[in-house]
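ARCHIVE CARD
Drawer: 12
Card no.: 0347
Subject: one protein chain, sequence and derived structure
Cross-reference: see card 0346
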Amino acid sequence: MKEELQQFLNKMKTIEYGWIDKDGNKYINHIVKNKFLTDYYLQKPSEVWKNRIGICWDQVEVEREFLTKKDIPFKSFLILYDDGLKFPNHTFVIFKLGKEYGWIENTYKNVKDEIRYYKTLKEALENVKKEFISENDLQIIGNKLYYFAYDKPKYGIGYEEFAKHCQMGIKANEDFKNVDTF
C-alpha cells in the first residue's frame, strides 16, 4: 500500500499550487488577498484534476477522495495561527496505515516529494507544525496556534464558509488525544 500511496503523491505533483476564481481565472502560486476572499471557491476533486490547480484546501479533498476509495482511515486538519492580522493556515491529511501515521503533502516545498511516516499522531502533528512555521516564516508568539480536525466540506463554498466549516470541527487538545480516533 505504501507504494500505491507514493504513486498517488507522484500523480498529485501534476497539480500546481494556486486557485481558480468563480470566473475561471487561474492564480498560480499567489493569493490576491481581496480577490481570494471574495472569489475563491472550493473545487471538487474532479475539478482539481481537470484544472491541475489547487491550494491546500482543494488538494486535501483530492486526498480525501483517494483515501476514502482505498478504505484507509484518515483525518483532515486545519492548522491556524491567530496572529490577529493574516491568520496563516494550512490544511492537510494524516492517515493511519497499520500502526503508523502518514502525512501526504503536495504544497510545501520541503515535504512534497515524500510521504512522511510517524509512530504517533502527536509526532506527525508536531512535524506539520515545524514545517508550517518554516513555510510561512513565522515567529509564534503566545499560545495562538490551533489544530482543528474537520469533516468533508461542501464543494463550491467560498473562503469564509470554508474557514468557518473547519473551525466548527474538533479543536485539538495539546496532547492531541481527543482527535486520535481513526
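Annotation on reverse: The mean pLDDT is 92. The first strand starts at residue 18 and ends at 20.
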